[in-house]
C-alpha cells in the first residue's frame, strides 16, 4: 500500500479508538492500520472495524540499560513503540496519536515526506500559540519506509535512557546536535489551539476537555460490561471526613467499571476494598495494585488506582476536584 495512516493503542487508551475514527472518517478515506500494543477483546473488536490490526505486543530484542526504574520503563515503552512503527504496511506513513481531533483532509501531508530525510513533523506547542523552533512533537508525523530517522531515533533513546524524559525531546536534541535536516509541516496540523486542523488533545487539561466531548461519550462504552460481576464488587469504606469525595470517586470509577459497589459492607465473594480517596483510572480486579500519589517510581497516569493518603493527599485530591469541576463548568457553559 502506498500511503496510509498508522495509529496504536492498548487496553489503557482503547476507548479513544472509535472516538478518533469518528472524526477521521468525516474527512478522509485513506486506509488505517492499528498497532495492537495489548488491546482487550473489546478494544480489538473496535480496532478491526477501523482497519488492519498489526500485533505489537512483543518487546523488541533491543534492550534499554538504565539503573533508574522509571526512566528505564518509559524509555523501553517508547523503544517498543518506535520499533513496531517501522512495521507500517505503507510506503509513506502518517503516524497519529489517537487523542487527536481530525478536522480536515490529510492527503496533502504525505507530500511533506518528499524530503531527503523522508520525515516531517510540526514544532512542539507548549500552548496554543507558542511554538519551539528546535523541537518537534512526534504525536503526528509523516515518514517514508526508506527513511533512516526511526533507526536513528532508536539509537538515541538507547544512548540517552539514563537521562530520559520524552522521546520527542531526545530526537529533537539529536537532530539539532548532529545537524540533521528534517521537513516541517504547518503547526496547525499538530496543536491544541482553536484554529487547529488536527487538534492534539495532549496533556491533563486537554484530557478533561476530551472526556467532556459528547462525541467521546457517545462512542465510549465500558468494555467490560459483558463480564459477570455477581461474585465481585467494590467495598467503599466511607466516614464523615471522606463523604465529600464520593461523587468524584463515582465519576472516575464508572468511566471504567460496572461492578457493583457496596458502602461499608461486604456482600461479595470477591472484593476490592477502597475509600473515596482511592481514585480509579482503569478496569479493576481483586488483585489490582494500589499506588500512592507520592510514589515517584511509577508513572501515575498509567496506574489503575491512586491513593491520595493522609492530609497532603486530601488537599491534593481537593485540588484535582476543583480543577476538574471548573473545567467541566467551562465546557458546559452556553
Characterization of this structure:
The protein has 334 residues and is an alpha/beta fold. The protein folds into two domains: 3-202, Spore Coat Polysaccharide Biosynthesis Protein SpsA, Chain A, CATH 3.90.550; 222-332, no CATH class. It has nine helices and 15 strands. It has helices at residues 17-27, 41-50, 69-85, 149-160, 167-177, 203-211, 214-219, 246-254, 310-332; strands at 3-9, 32-36, 52-55, 92-96, 100-102, 119-127, 130-144, 183-184, 198-200, 232-236, 261-263, 270-274, 278-280, 291-292, 305-307. The strands form four sheets. It has a seven-stranded mixed sheet, with helices on both faces. The protein has a three-stranded parallel sheet with strand order 11-10-12, with no helix packed on it. Strands 13-15-14 form a three-stranded mixed sheet. Helix 3 (69-85) packs antiparallel against helix 4 (149-160). The N and C termini lie far apart (45 Å). Residues 127-131 and 330-334 have low confidence and may be disordered.
Please specify the SSE layout and strand pairing.
Blueprint: E1 3-9, H1 17-27, E2 32-36, H2 41-50, E3 52-55, H3 69-85, E4 92-96, E5 100-102, E6 119-127, E7 130-144, H4 149-160, H5 167-177, E8 183-184, E9 198-200, H6 203-211, H7 214-219, E10 232-236, H8 246-254, E11 261-263, E12 270-274, E13 278-280, E14 291-292, E15 305-307, H9 310-332
Parallel strand pairs: 1-2, 1-4, 2-3, 6-8, 10-11, 10-12, 14-15
Antiparallel strand pairs: 4-7, 5-9, 6-7, 13-15
Helix pairs in contact: 3-4, 4-5
Amino acid at each position: 500500500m502506498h500511503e496510509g495512516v498508522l495509529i496504536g493503542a492498548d487496553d489503557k487508551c482503547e476507548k479513544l479508538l472509535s472516538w478518533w475514527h469518528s472524526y477521521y472518517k468525516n474527512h478522509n478515506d485513506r486506509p488505517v492500520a492499528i498497532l495492537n500494543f495489548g488491546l482487550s477483546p473489546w478494544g480489538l473488536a473496535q480496532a478491526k472495524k477501523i482497519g488492519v490490526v498489526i500485533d505489537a505486543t512483543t518487546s523488541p530484542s533491543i534492550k534499554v540499560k538504565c539503573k533508574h526504574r522509571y526512566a528505564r520503563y518509559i524509555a523501553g515503552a517508547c523503544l517498543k513503540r518506535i520499533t513496531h512503527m517501522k512495521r507500517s504496511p505503507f510506503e509513506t506513513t502518517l503516524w497519529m496519536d489517537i487523542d487527536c481531533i481530525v478536522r480536515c483532509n490529510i492527503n496533502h501531508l504525505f507530500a511533506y515526506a518528499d524530503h531527503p530525510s523522508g520525515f516531517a513533523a510540526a514544532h512542539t506547542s507548549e500552548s496554543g500559540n507558542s511554538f519551539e523552533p528546535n523541537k518537534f512533537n512526534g504525536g503526528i508525523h509523516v515518514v517514508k519506509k526508506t527513511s533512516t530517522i526511526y533507526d536513528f531515533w532508536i539509537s538515541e533513546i538507547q544512548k540517552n535512557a539514563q537521562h530520559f524524559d520524552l522521546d520527542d525531546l531526545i530526537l529533537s536534541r539529536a537532530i539539532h546536535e548532529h545537524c540533521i535536516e528534517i521537513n516541517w509541516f504547518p503547526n496547525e496540523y499538530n496543536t491544541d489551539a482553536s484554529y487547529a486542523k488536527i487538534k492534539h488533545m495532549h496533556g491533563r487539561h486537554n484530557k478533561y476537555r476530551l472526556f467532556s466531548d459528547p462525541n467521546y461519550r457517545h462512542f465510549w462504552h465500558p468494555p467490560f460490561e459483558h463480564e459477570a460481576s455477581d461474585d465481585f464488587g467494590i467495598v467503599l469504606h466511607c466516614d464523615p471526613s471522606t463523604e465529600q469525595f464520593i461523587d468524584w470517586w463515582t465519576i472516575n470509577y464508572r468511566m471504567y467499571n460496572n461492578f457493583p459497589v457496596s458502602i461499608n459492607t461486604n456482600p461479595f465473594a470477591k472484593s476490592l476494598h477502597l475509600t473515596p480517596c482511592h481514585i480509579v483510572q482503569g478496569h479493576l480486579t481483586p488483585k489490582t495494585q494500589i499506588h500512592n500519589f507520592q510514589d515517584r517510581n511509577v508513572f501515575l497516569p498509567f496506574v489503575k488506582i491512586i491513593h491520595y493518603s493522609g492530609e497532603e493527599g486530601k488537599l491534593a485530591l481537593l485540588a484535582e476536584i476543583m480543577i476538574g469541576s471548573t473545567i467541566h463548568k467551562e465546557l458546559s457553559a452556553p
